[in-house]
Amino acid sequence: MTRDEIREYFQNKNFIMLLTTVLYVMGILAFFYNSGIICAFLITFACIIAIIKKISGLKFIFLLLFMFYFGYLNSYMQIKPSDNILPLAPEETSVIGQIVSIPNNTNDKIKFFINVSKVGDTSVEGKLLVSSFDDYQNSSLYKIGNTYKFYGKLREPFRATNPSQFDYAKYLRNFHTYTVLYVENDSKLLSRPSDLKWKFMQNLDFVREKILSEHSKYLKSPNNEIIGGVVFGDDAVAPPDDIKSNFVHSGLLHILAASGMNVAFIFGFWFFLLFKLFKAPYKPTVVSGMLLIILYTLMTGLGASVIRAALMLLFVLAGKLIDRDTHSVSLLSLVALLMLIYNPAYINNVSFQLSFLVTLGLLTTGNVLFEKFKTESALMNFVSGSILVPIVAQLWIAPIQMFYFNTFSLYSIFANILSVPFISVISCGGFFSSILAIFAPYTSILCKWLDFLMNFLTTMLVNLSAFFAQLPHSLVSTTHPSLIQLVIYYAIVIFVTMLIKFGWDKKSLIVLAIATFVLGISTINIPSNNLEIIAFDVQNADCFLIKSPENKYFIIDTGKASYKRGFSQAKIILLKYLKDRGIKNFEDVIITHFDNDHSGGTVEVIDNLRIKRLIVNSFDNKSSTSKNIYNEIKRKNVNTKLVKNNDVIYNEPNFKIKTFEANVSGKHSDNINSVVTLLSYKNFDMLFMGDGTIDTYQKIKKDLPSGIEVLKVGHHGANNVVSESMLKTLGVKTSIISTGINRYGHPTAGTLDILRHTDIYRTDKINAIKITSDGKMYNVNGYNRQSKRFELIKQY
């Protein structure tokens, strides 16, 4: 591309607005990724080069530079590291606050945000998230705008202390929220809203609930939730979990999110009714339609996608009122800029990212392809459009889906093409029947007959989703693409779009081939030949991942099971890490014993991984956790072995794994009989004690070698798990303690005192721990939450 062509692009309104927004977004990303200095240097350097090369006018280049710094400073001013409530956690207390979001009933719990006025006896201002498990079947207890006195556990949301772990604290920070209140007892209504704003929001929510209630008379679950999701979006109406899972697997989940189609149809219906049917004046019709869109947006729960669509349409309509046309890409850029100025944290919202990327894809790649396949037949144009839209959408959102969810919906394009006629009619009928439901009971008969038709069409849509969801490999697990890979991918997509529009030449094809080659090469992972051990931070529990020098994988313990209706540590920490790296095959999974903090995630590990063998210490344990594991073993026909003492379970050149058992009988022998595991690689040895005690060691010490470099301390550092003589005999240099907040006092002062002559590394202090060894030396690394990688602490 010549300098003149570049200058021509800098004169294009769409490009100018897009580039201005991109520089502002880069400033926001520099803030969130803690890379302000390096990004500022690169951006400033690029602007200096642009000035020297006279690529554009000085004013525009300074504008771009200003937008970058404005994005960074605006993020710094708005996004705070904490608030006044966070220092009060953890605490079991009462909280007084006003509900400021529509209560969302999902996964057997109700969630909503409140503006806090008092915590216990302390007057304090801030915002927190309330999560109630006990009242989830009666969500009508909580109304937006009402002020309640809640009772529960005030907690700091969990942070990402492991690689690949979702950072809940960082996520809630996007909503200016830094604490969570887990409500346990009945809450007390103190007052209803007195100010006009919250009265209006409560009445609007009442209208929404009236519509859904009227639909529920004629539509049963899940059809009622599907209609509600299509009309109001899943931010306001939560579908059943099994239905949502089918829509995820089939690639149709976006149907349940209010979007541009809903907003456009609402205005179209209103415009036809007033202007065409009742011959109302043009401008009052447009203005009233704009007000209707605002009301609808508030009613949906203010999801990012519907805000984007509503703002775009409002700008288009405002332009019509003053006889001004709008440019699609520049309008999209302006809307993104305004939303991000209002709240820079929108950039972390997946819905925001998907909505804008799909829209940008349709406005660029989509328009180019539509023009390419355009014919004189309106019918053929409709058919080609119905096919191209899901293809282009999938092309633009697939990497984001892989980035956040490690999945790719294999049949999404086909499911979306076949769903087009259903969605069109359901959106139209759902909105019209919702209008009728507002005026019930006067319009109940009409609503009933329309819902009868909607019931048939919605059932067809549910069946279509279920059909594609049940096909083999409907949802393919993928690795986690890096940010660099995403940039290269979208650069290729945009470059190909330009080539389709302007034509191909030899140089362009070479550039495309090189970029594609670089992207392909970047996906190749070259494993190391070192022994690697990761001690995941699973609080006061155990979960270890081992990679042998020949890249075979093993697991020792699986952390805790889920709390109430949440997720197990294995799912949110271990399995997420493995998915990101495409690791599925395991030689052995060792369950040291059946305490929940060691075996709680075993069922999910068996269900999601390919395991050659499972090693346990008992076949007749009576705990509920063990019964679930036994049932899963039987269901999946897993090869299961009872541990043997001094048994080599795996061997490769210079590396072997041995298991040991104390085999003590008695009422309180569970911890003593934990499976003990020894890793040996050349001159490096590491001993995993499970919940083993000094008594365990006494039983097996004759079979253990001296010169154990690393000891995984038993029972999270409780009393009676190590002794001076034990450490001296084994020759331990490094101690690893897997622990976290607990009510048992782990690790105890006595145990820490005994370990004082060793280097002690604790997961509650340095997060996840990674040990690597070439068989001669070994490194201890701690997980840095800021850089999101393991960093060397000490080399031995």
Q: Spans with pLDDT under 50 lasting ≥5 residues?
A: none
% residues in beta strands: 15-25%
Q: Roughly how much helix do the residues carry, as a percent range?
A: 40-55%
Separation of termini?
54 Å
Please tell me how large the radius of gyration is: 30 Å
> Count of DSSP helices?
26
Could you please describe the fold and organization of this structure?
The protein has 796 residues and is an alpha+beta fold. Helices cover 48% and strands 18% of the residues. The protein is built from 26 helices and 25 strands. Strands 15-14-13-12-11-10-23-24-25 form a 9-stranded mixed sheet. Strands 16-17-18-19-20-21-22 form a 7-stranded mixed sheet. Helix 24 links the parallel strand 20 and strand 21. The protein starts with a helix and ends with a strand.
Summarize it.
The protein is of the alpha+beta class and 796 residues long. 48% of the residues lie in helices and 18% in strands.
Give a topology summary.
Layout: H1 3-9, H2 13-32, H3 36-52, H4 58-78, E1 91-99, E2 104-106, E3 109-119, E4 122-132, E5 147-155, H5 168-173, E6 180-183, E7 188-191, H6 196-218, H7 223-232, H8 241-250, H9 260-277, H10 282-299, H11 304-321, H12 328-342, H13 350-372, H14 378-405, E8 407-409, H15 412-438, H16 444-469, E9 475-477, H17 483-502, H18 506-522, E10 531-535, E11 543-547, E12 553-558, H19 569-581, E13 585-590, H20 596-599, H21 602-608, E14 610-616, H22 624-636, E15 640-642, E16 647-652, E17 655-660, E18 676-681, E19 684-688, H23 694-700, E20 710-712, H24 724-730, E21 734-737, H25 749-754, E22 759-762, H26 763-766, E23 769-773, E24 778-784, E25 789-795
Parallel strand pairs: 4-6, 12-13, 13-14, 14-15, 19-20, 20-21, 21-22
Antiparallel strand pairs: 1-3, 1-5, 2-3, 3-4, 5-6, 5-7, 8-9, 10-11, 10-23, 11-12, 16-17, 17-18, 18-19, 23-24, 24-25
Helix pairs in contact: 2-3, 2-4, 2-12, 3-4, 6-7, 6-15, 6-16, 7-15, 7-16, 8-16, 9-10, 9-11, 10-11, 11-12, 12-13, 13-14, 13-17, 14-15, 14-17, 15-16, 17-18, 21-22
